[in-house]
Fold:
Amino acid sequence: MSMLTPPGMGGKYRVTGAAYPRMSRPRRRRRIVLTVLGAVLGLALLGYGTLQLMNVFRGGSGKSVAAGKDCATPKPRAGAAAAASPAAAKPAVPLPQPGQITVNVYNATPRAGLAKAVADELKKRGFTVANVGNAPADFDKKVPGTGILLGSPKTDKAAFSVLGTQLEGDTQQTDAREGADIDLILGDAFKELSPKETADKELYLLANPQPAPAKTC
Structure:
């Protein structure tokens, strides 16, 4: 009996000096863990590289695509304002001056003296006033709105627009006249002309339309 065999044990439980159990830890689990970690790292690098390649083809940076906050209106160059200042003094859209527009003021309401009061105010604002009086029978007591601008089909549309800045809610119509004069027929809803400050602002915007700011991403 071997010295490694406890007393009272023998037979198949006998331990000899030539055979003994291995005490070292198996390495198979470690290899599996390292293999899985390597695969995950490889997939992560592959995904990141694919994203960068897509950004290159789209023409944008990864920051602007991911965050979506770098899309903004481009700032003008330092010399752009100075270069644009002389052009700002001239209207972008040429409009006729009020003095070049001949207006006939007609009253289609029961309010006495309304046509004369409006005509006097238009004269102060630079318009040329021709005829003043009651509206023709086709319009007398038949204009429920603020007023009607009536002119020839050949009348410059800009003249209608300039005169239209002086009152809100007007409508435009044409008739068979040959001249360039425009009738302002005052309706039942008319109270007064727009304040001069408001009309001047509308005239400025009419002559200098503001383009929508462009956005770049």
Observations:
- The longest helix spans residues 28-58.
- The first strand starts at residue 102 and ends at 107.
- Residues 23 and 33 are 22 Å apart (CA to CA).
